[in-house]
């Protein structure tokens, strides 16, 4: 019986959901590294962009897993109290990340077709064009759609953009600090995934990752008795992970499972994105 169960597990790796999850993780890793390198070249051409980046030194790299651990514990014990604030912050960050990821493609299309793009306003001493305004509206609309529906595809889109934007804006000056950060995050993952249950009585990482946050849009609509309240999801999966339904094609799932989705945290792809970015930098001389 155990041999048959093991065989089922191996066969299940060829199901659409696991294959899609693996391919998506690989694609996001290389997309993060590529966008980070291209953004580095943009900074070299326009030093004003460097104000939006964070260059980590050794002490800051060491503090990242410490602060991440504190944030993890905060969400573990007080998630229900801060979930709406966390959702609102995530929505703003997701819109910014989505704009950051889509803007190079919009600029490429604009240059290829020679489209005019007049300035419409200046905000915070920065020029704001008609195309940028339209792109911003599209990004806000996608985030609002996620807040309303909570659909897993939109959740994945926003999570992927957050991962790419983080890798691009957090700069590591050399391979030593990169290696130090990756080792610290590796220890961080090992402890919170495999050993936290012994201390806190529950797997902290899994508990936080699988909790759903209260939707502030539903709370506002409910307090104002707005029409269409039933269309707004009450709780949301935050885009801190990519998820895929186990039965993507409606196929039967072997065995019983407590979860309807396969998931992978953004932290794993972010770490690999940093690694690939520095590997390209070293071997290609960027």
TrEMBL record:
SMART domains given in the database record: PSN
TM stretches of this protein: 20-40, 61-79, 85-106, 127-147, 153-170, 177-195
GO CC annotation terms, alphabetical: cytoplasmic side of endoplasmic reticulum membrane; Golgi-associated vesicle membrane; lumenal side of endoplasmic reticulum membrane
Gene Ontology annotations of biological process type: membrane protein proteolysis; signal peptide processing
InterPro entries noted in UniProt: Peptidase_A22B_SPP (IPR007369), Preselin/SPP (IPR006639)
Membrane topology reported for the UniProt record: Multi-pass membrane protein
Xref: Pfam families: Peptidase_A22B
Gene Ontology terms, MF aspect: aspartic endopeptidase activity, intramembrane cleaving
Subcellular localization: Endomembrane system
Keywords of this entry: Hydrolase, Membrane, Protease, Transmembrane, Transmembrane helix
Sequence similarity: Belongs to the peptidase A22B family.
Protein name (database record): Signal peptide peptidase-like 1
The organism of origin for this protein: Olea europaea subsp. europaea
